[in-house]
What we know:
Blueprint: E1 7-14, E2 24-31, E3 36-40, H1 47-55, E4 62-67, E5 70-71, E6 79-81, H2 93-100, H3 106-115, H4 131-143, E7 149-153, H5 161-178, E8 181-185, H6 189-195, E9 198-203, E10 208-214, H7 224-239
Parallel strand pairs: 3-8, 3-9, 6-7, 7-8
Antiparallel strand pairs: 1-2, 1-4, 4-5, 9-10
Helix pairs in contact: 2-3, 2-4, 3-4, 4-5, 6-7
Adenosine-5'-diphosphate (ADP) binds near residues 18, 23, 43, 47 and 48.
Amino acid sequence: xxxxxxxxxxxxxxxxxxxAEPVLEGLKLTVEPSTTLALIGPSGAGKSTLxxxxxxxxxxxxxxxxxxxxxxxxxxxxxxxFQDPRLLPWLTxxxxxxxxxxxxxxxxxxxxxxxxxxxxxxxxxxHQLSGGMQRRVALARALALSPRVLLLDEPFVSLDRKLAxxxxxxxxxVIKSYRPTVILVSHDIEDVAQLADRIVLLSGQPAQVKSELxxxxxxxxxxxxxxxxxxxxxxxxxxxVD
Length: 242
Ligand code: ADP
């Protein structure tokens, strides 16, 4: 699989028509290939909006988002995992994967499910799977596109800590083998301290980059003390924003 794309974000302004003020303004970020950037910030800051601009789903803004030198809306389709898994309820786990990519073989779809730890659940319908398992299917489905960019919007939200940590392991494993560029939105400081290479705090109205942290050590290998140190630094940064 090809490795990750460089993502260059230069948003002069993004405003929704019903709002007087832009949501995002003067936002510049470059995400290096095959690194994981975490976006944190208060609810409503514009993190999900930014993911949609990066995905090329929303083109209504001033500025540009380039993915490996191409405007986002004409670049390769990214993998996108939303907060809620958005599986098609009438299709099995395997068929949910095949639904996003008609040319994928059965064997390849099954292999993806195995990679995310769902051996034996290929024929299960979404309602027969736990919330954490449904998210794994959603992650496998995003990987089916062989994405150079993987966008994750609160993929661990409302999971208990044990499940979230299990999903971290799955995430780290697939990142290691697929090497996409990852942009992860999360409000959970422990998640980002464990998984990201770089953390960006977005805040303000309009939102701008308020703080940035290059995370020491390797994602997945940080011990409790390192996580605590990163968490403290992020909490301090969050407290100083509006
Ligand atoms: P976050 O992900 O940081 O919680 P969002 O990107 O979801 O923030 O939202 C940022 C702001 O933009 C919020 O005030 C939200 O109400 C507004 N917003 C998001 N999507 C739309 C939309 N489609 N139309 C109008 N306003 C929107």
